[in-house]
Amino acid sequence: MVIFKITRVETTPFEGQKPGTSGLRKKVKVFVQPHYLQNFVQATFNALGADRVKGATLVVSGDGRYYSKDAIQIITKMAATNGVRRVWIGQNGLLSTPAVSAVVRERVEANGSKATGAFILTASHNPGGPHEDFGIKYNMENGGPAPEGITNKIYENTTTIKDYLIAEGLPDVDISTTGVSSFEGPGGKFDVDVFDSTSDYLKLLKSIFDFPSIQKLLSSPNFSFCYDALHGVAGIHAKRIFVEELGANESSLVNCVPKEDFGGGHPDPNLTYAKELVARMGLSKTHSEPNPPEFGAAADGDGDRNMVLGKRFFVTPSDSVAIIAANAVEAIPYFSGGLKGVARSMPTSAALDVVAKHLNLKFFEVPTGWKFFCNLMDAGMCSICGEESFGTGSDHIREKDGIWAVLAWLSILAYKNKDNLGGGNLVTVEDIVRQHWATYGRHYYTRYDYENVDAGAAKELMTHLVKLQSSLDEVNKIIKGIQSDVSSVVHADEFEYKDPVDGSVSKHQGIRYLFEDGSRLVFRLSGTGSEGATIRLYIEQYEKDSSKIGRDSQEALAPLVEVALKLSKMQEYTGRSAPTVIT
Question: Which residue of the set 124, 181, 519, 526 is catalytic?
Fold first, then answer.
């Protein structure tokens, strides 16, 4: 048996190691600096404290982006010297973020041991490769992201760190083959278990959904299906779940081989970056597809986000979570006993609010960040939740879950078509969405992203918007001068959230302008980029009149868009005449 020693390495702090809403994300060139990753990992172990680290079982895996394999070996050697008893690694270092959460919550070794936390190596939907992004975040024993109390401690520790511990004489572990490697150190035994990346996740999903009914749908000659993993980690789960378990044709999987650089693409499942899927589904402006599939979906780099498409039809994420919630009890066995409640992030459209009101469900509006949903789910107050940024999930784990969302949609389609899979007209994705609008009204909705904006200019723009809020009369005068037929603003604020579970207060969570007719403008600085600032502008208009719910979204929203851009002085502050991405 290999015996290792503990080495204490002197170091000095790096600036800017403050975790954002989803961990620490920087360019690879930043992470590969000597001691950079090690400082952050040691700061995390110190923040967790001996009671959470000594004798612990930790998961260390991620989306397979460039630098992941090196990082896994570094973290494993540091875990060994900080008192961790065993490390679990998905084969080839690959586990989607939802699969990590499932493993932490569900996997039990023969000796009864369970994971107590996880280092997830991902920068989510950001590009990968030697010149692109890397990221790391820590998840707790509930399978969810570390709360602010822990991430604040991690950051404090990074500003004062003087040394870190790492194993000397511990060889790199072969992560390409499943099996257990055992080592001996000054503190006793240390094991590394490389395990199948999909088995635990699949087992959980099979306990939630009616796989035989989805299999019937996928095998119907009337139904066609396409799934694009954008060369992210969801590809390894997709083959096992959709092809081997549910019987889909392997040709229905696109870009499902994980790559360190995501094939040179941007692994963000939206209409801008999922170009191949968008073209296949008949939504490309430059390419005409004569016979698109009935259903299409895409994932991001780490598999927690999703985009859902019908034949020549885009489903907004805000509509998607509302439609899943409206149909869950009858279409998904896991929810057959009813929903405990539903929740959305503040920038997400109010489509879910209307469903909650109709179905008499508890409803919560939270800041952006999945950890806020986790508190509600841990307290048994929320079953289904979602974000406008293509994130949807439920209380089966404590992360958003892209494949779960796809299976939820396939379950709804299977339920709506249970009597006509042999022939006749299918109830389509578009049919389901339009019926939902007819029942609940339509929330016209769009998001403008201005990426890599000068951080100082972005802050000035936000300061300008806050100052404007001091006089709604002045705001409405400006608005009427831009578009006289736009409704008046009746309330404006910076969103603040008091957590109903622990009483904690989150301030400065986005600037809101709420209009008399239910329309909204929301401005937020995003914490998910690796450099510069991203300004996100959300524009929403509610329409109850069934004769007006079929309009083109951008056309319906054009007056509000003009108001938002001129009110915020977007071009003046950012120098941008157009957004980077429109969704």
Answer: 124
Stated pTM of the model: 0.93
Looking at residue 528, its pLDDT comes to: 53
Task: Dump pLDDT digits (tens) for 158-167.
Answer: 999 999 999 9
Helix (H, G, I), strand (E, B) or coil at 135: strand
The CA-CA-CA angle for residues 208, 209, 212, to 5°, reads: 140
Give bridge partners of residue 582 from the DSSP assignment: 448
What pLDDT shows up at residue 147? 87
- Residue 293 is predicted with a pLDDT of 97
Count the helices and strands in the chain (H runs, E runs): 19, 27
Structure letter (DSSP) for residue 548: G
CA atoms of 299 and 389, how far apart (whole Å):
12
Element (H, E) at 58: strand 57-62
Strands in 511-515's sheet, in edge-to-edge order, are 489-494, 511-515, 520-526, 533-543, 442-453, 581-582
Tokens of 563: 């108001």
Contact 228, 131 (CB under 8 A): no
Q: How far apart are alpha carbons 234 and 98 in whole angstroms? A: 10
Contact criterion met (CB below 8 Å) for 324 and 401? no
Rounded to whole angstroms, what are the CA distances from 327 to 217, 330, 333, 356, 439?
A: 17, 6, 11, 12, 13
d(CA 80, CA 241) in angstroms, rounded, equals 34
Query: Which uninterrupted H or E stretch holds 445?
Result: strand 442-453
For residues 88 and 116, is the Cβ–Cβ distance under 8 A?
no
pLDDT at 532 over 90: no
Among 514, 523, 398, 413, which Cα is nearest to 458's?
Answer: 523
What is the phi/psi pair of residue 256, to 5°? -100, 15
CA–CA separation, 432 and 281 (whole Å): 17
Q: Known catalytic residue: 124?
A: yes
Please, what's the b/e burial string for 377-413 (b: 16 or more CB within 10 A of its CB; e: otherwise)? Answer: beeebbbbbbbbbbbbbbbbbbbbbbbbbbbbbbbbb
Question: What are φ and ψ of residue 173, in 5° steps?
Answer: -90, 140
pLDDT digits (tens, 9 = 90+) for 288-343: 788 999 999 999 999 999 999 999 999 999 999 999 999 999 999 999 999 999 99
What tokens does 193 get?
Answer: 């278990």
What is residue 423's predicted lDDT score, i.e. its pLDDT? 74
57, 114 contact by CB (below 8 A)? yes
Instruction: Look up residue 139 and give its two tokens.
Output: 């998840």
